[in-house]
Amino acid sequence: MNKTFDRTSSILFALIGALFVAESRNISTSAYGSEVGPNLFPMGLGIILILLSLRLFWETFRYRESVTSAVVFRHKRFLLMLLATVLYAWFLEDIGYVISTFFFLLAGFRLMGSASWWKSAAVALAFSGGVYAVYVHILKGTLPGFPTWLGL
Amino acid sequence: MEALQYLADGFTIALQWHNLVYAFVGVLIGTSVGVLPGIGPMSGVALLLPVTASLTNGLSPEQAAASALILLAGVYYGAMYGGSTTSILLNTPGESSSVVTTLDGYQMARQGRAGAALSIAAIGSFVAGIVALVALVFLAQPLSEVALTFGPAEYFSLMILGLCAVSGLGGKSMTKALIMTVFGLLLATIGIDNVSGVARFTYDIPDLYQGLEFLTIAVGLFALGEVFKTILEADGTEAQLIKVDRILPTKADLKRSAAPIARGSLLGFFIGLLPGAGATLASFFSYIVEKKVSRQPERFGKGAIEGVAAPESANNAASGGAMIPLLTLGIPGSGTTAILMGALLMYNVQPGPLLFSDHPQVAWGLIASMFIGNVMLLILNLPLVKVFAKIIETPPQYLIPLIIAISVFGVYAVQISTFDLMLLIACGVAGYLLAKNDFPLAPLVLGLVLGPMIENNMRRALTTSNGDFLIFLQKPLSAIFLACALLWLVVPMILKLRGRQVVVNEEA
User: Which of A40, A139, B346, B445 is 20 to 30 Å from B64 at the Cα level?
Assistant: First the structure.
């Protein structure tokens, strides 16, 4: 177990609980025909969350930190993949499904250690083109198409 | 024999050709998901949830719900079959409910009996699946009739019981499990309130008015969370696969495993019925039971076929048993069933006692398809076990980015919003961090699914009692449920205080 994470998260959860309690005071306290308003449930839960977080905080003083195992963390690879995913999601609507998915997969395959550009590009193209063709043309679903400035 | 009549109707639905295809695709993907280490039944079902939603686009809501559920349930029990393969061949469980199988399964494989171990696991899973289904057929109607007499107060307390049970067994720390439950319930309050129409915690952001989408959060937490974990922590060492030669078990093997399969099926089924106790716990207990009843307990851990047959039967029976509270009471007892419930709700089908009278197509079609699916799995698994073993060798450098791409496609196809994609990625990171630090994710999803129903029932009950909270204790049945809920939390705590080891359920 990781004390720093547990403490930080307990404080964070307590703050979330407090936020819900504070904000639920702005919600109307009664509904038409009922004495129980929409504020009661979130407020009660917020209070319980604060109490539980306090207990978790208290528990962090009572256990001994276990020795961390010898896992090698590959932070660089993870951050790059995360960045690629965020960019992919962000530009999906702007440059269309096929193009964005192709570039995301190509980057992803290479980041994860695929040795060949050609093989990566082929798999990426097959997936992005295949999904688009099946979903949009056969199943009549909606996905962002090609950007208009391409003139397709 | 009313149940048999309904079941026959169910078969006419399950035998429609498109539903047969859905069942086949479901069990095929399920087996693959079970075989691949890193993707468990929960992330598999979560990943496919949006995909099925877009596949069933053209069907009428009722048919779409039946077909989607047939596929997703196929993934669920297919994964239970597939999980044994890696346990036996690689000594790495494909999902948590196959952990015990490694003990004897891998030893058998090293002795050159890999084929026998794999096939006995498949046969055991099949028998257990059928046992659980027969029980489901005969219990479903009576149980849902009982549940029909429940009022809002009883429902509220029953759902609290379900949440407490899952939190009590939910992980290494009960406090953390409870925090996740309450957090899930709180997230469910975001959006327009169903009863009064008041917007809560939306801050005028249009994306929040509908509330946080269950599907986005489930896919993010489970599928992306697992993927991020693999990206960060995979060590890249290649494990050595053991070759499979002879597939069919010998007569002696069959004779020896008959009784363990029967015991495992029954035990697994009853454990599966309990909310919170799932397939992992079932396989664990059945292994212990077999070791206790065996005349030669020293053989366990050295390649005893009973040690493969019993837990593999138990985990499959448990996954069947877990369908009962979901379908009849509308209360999911585990993360995976919570996602199945989310799927039903997406199609506007409310699981619970009314499911069998309002949507018999969905309920009985699903049950009948599970019979067919189990037969398919047996046929698939015996001759094709070698092919499935090959799936383990799928290069991860291709698999990982493809899983991310499928998650993004699935969520976007259903939600058509960039906001949901960003939420998806955030949930993926959160899911990784939380799971890594022993915050169980299943209670959060459960809270998210049950939140609106708990709140509605609570408010309806309080409206009838003019705001008096004692109504939950005055109704006898409701009081019993609440007492059980309390016991479920207090008993493990007392056991822990007295220094006992408490078996906790890993997510499954």
Answer: B445
Nearest to A135 among B228, B396, B413 (CB): B413
The answer to whether residue B195 sits within a structural domain is yes
Q: Which residues from chain A sit within 8 angstroms of residue B418, using beta carbons?
A: 89-90, 92-93
Burial of A44 (0-12, 13-18, 19+ CB in 10 A): middle
Nearest chain A Cα distance for residue B397, angstroms: 5
What is the tally of structural domains in chain B?
1
CA–CA gap between residue B490 and residue B482 (Å, rounded): 12
Domain that residue B237 falls in: 2-497
Domain membership flag for residue B483: yes
Residue pair B104/B307 in contact (Cβ under 8 Å)? The answer is yes
pLDDT one-digit tens code per residue, B336-360? 888 889 888 888 888 888 888 888 8
CB-closest option in B176, B412, B438 to A92 = B412
Q: What is the ipTM of this complex?
A: 0.92
**pLDDT tens-digit profile of A61-99?**
877 766 666 677 888 899 999 999 999 999 999 999 999
Q: Domains of chain A: which residue ranges?
A: 3-59, 75-150
Give the distance, in angstroms, between the CA of residue B55 and the centroid of all CA atoms in the same chain: 22
Residues of B in Cβ contact (< 8 Å) with A49: 179, 182-183, 186
